[in-house]
Design goal:
By secondary structure, this protein is of the alpha/beta class. It has ten helices and ten strands. The chain binds adenosine-5'-triphosphate and magnesium ion.
Amino acid sequence: MLKLTDVSRQFGGLQALLQVNMLVPRGRVVGLIGPNGAGKTTMINNISGLDHPTSGSIAFMAHDITSASPHRISRLGIARTYQNIRLFGEMTALENLLIGGHATSKSSILDSLVFSRRYRFEERTMHERAMAMLARFSLGNLANSRASALPYGDQRRLEMARALSTNPMLLLLDEPTAGMNPIETRALGEQILHERDRGLTVLVIEHDMSLIHQVCDEIYVLNFGQIIAHGTPDEIKQNPLVIEAYLGEDEDEHGRTAASA
Ligand SMILES: Nc1ncnc2c1ncn2[C@@H]1O[C@H](COP(=O)(O)OP(=O)(O)OP(=O)(O)O)[C@@H](O)[C@H]1O
Ligand SMILES: [Mg+2]
């Protein structure tokens, strides 16, 4: 479904990605792990069109999206969340979802000005869909809470709900459980598996190895911009190159190293 071929991204003298080859098959949950600064977020930025490769190519379905805009990539069916949560803090949880829905609305500005039947129908449908999505993430009773007032874990789940409200085929998650406790993390893992069972394909960056082991069918390991390993969670756990890459790293913000988790 998604294919990266020899993707490199250079920032001045820094090689953030070097000749990355990666395949995300339809209906799979693929993990992307690696030490801090390995290039994981850069990879998701390049796939989602926020940034572009210096060389190499990225294909999604039959489309070459190497230099496509974020808007076009989103229309093609790729959605993402951010390592640093990007919600509209002053808006309610519900409004944050409706904003995403308006991007795919068929009503024109004229429709909304004359408050046409189509516009009213779409408004109602979008509202119902947004409420259903919030309920899917156990956020239904928080629909009218201000996003910035929500606990951290709820904000992360709201971001994921918003990403899914565009009805994507591929979801890119950048550290979705950062700041969550183990119970919230486990529940989010179950949610990811549930969405996969509904047909979603997922690429997930995560430092929490318990989540990676819970949800991933396969894992890619990035180190200094290069893929150093690819395999099943069990294969990756035993890979000496991976263990070495992590041993050179201090403990992450959760006080764990990947090799010890
Ligand atoms: N826009 C940019 N300009 C210059 N350097 C950048 C830019 N974006 C990322 N980098 C550098 O590229 C490298 C990879 O960064 P990236 O954010 O992709 O790492 P990461 O694997 O997501 O790390 P973390 O686990 O800490 O989130 C880092 O050295 C970073 O400083
Ligand atoms: Mg990152």
